[in-house]
Amino acid sequence: MFSASFKSKETARSYEYHLKRYCNDLIPVQDPRSLLTMTQKEAEDTLIQFIIKKKDGGMSSSALNNYVAAVAKFYLINDKPINITQVNRFMPEPMKVKK
Fold first, then answer.
1. pLDDT tens digits along 42-84
2. Torsion of CA 71, 73, 78, 82, to 10 degrees
3. Does the domain at residues 7-88 carry the CATH identifier 1.10.150?
4. What gap in Å lies between CA 50 and CA 30, rounded to an integer?
């Protein structure tokens, strides 16, 4: 149902890619459907820990935003919305590359 929720095939491909990469980073989770067994608080905490880990690793805010958007949409489509406002508080500041 997640893939069918997109109007563009490219957007669906990008979101699925980032969702799979997010799941591969979580050691006990390999299948995105197993994310649905978490409570809302566990899902938010897991996503926040992912953001902190990647931010400390040097990932940019725009790259991290791709992961957060994919995970948030996955939960939304499956009727388990997360508090994205709280999650976004942990995102790094956007940096301009060019003046």
1. 999 999 999 999 999 999 899 999 999 999 999 999 999 899 9
2. 70
3. yes
4. 15
Q: What is the pTM of this model?
A: 0.85
Count other C-beta atoms under 10 Å from residue 34's C-beta: 12
Where do the domains of the chain lie? 7-88
Contacts of 84 (CB under 8 A, 6+ apart): 68, 72
Is the CA virtual torsion 18, 14, 68, 81 positive or negative? negative
Instruction: Give 1-44 pLDDT, tens digit per residue.
Output: 787 888 889 999 999 999 999 988 886 666 788 888 889 999 99
- How is 29-93 classified by DSSP, letter by letter? --SGGGGGGS-HHHHHHHHHHHHHHHHHTT--HHHHHHHHHHHHHHHHHTT----HHHHHTTSPP
Q: How many CB atoms lie within 10 A of CB 26?
A: 14
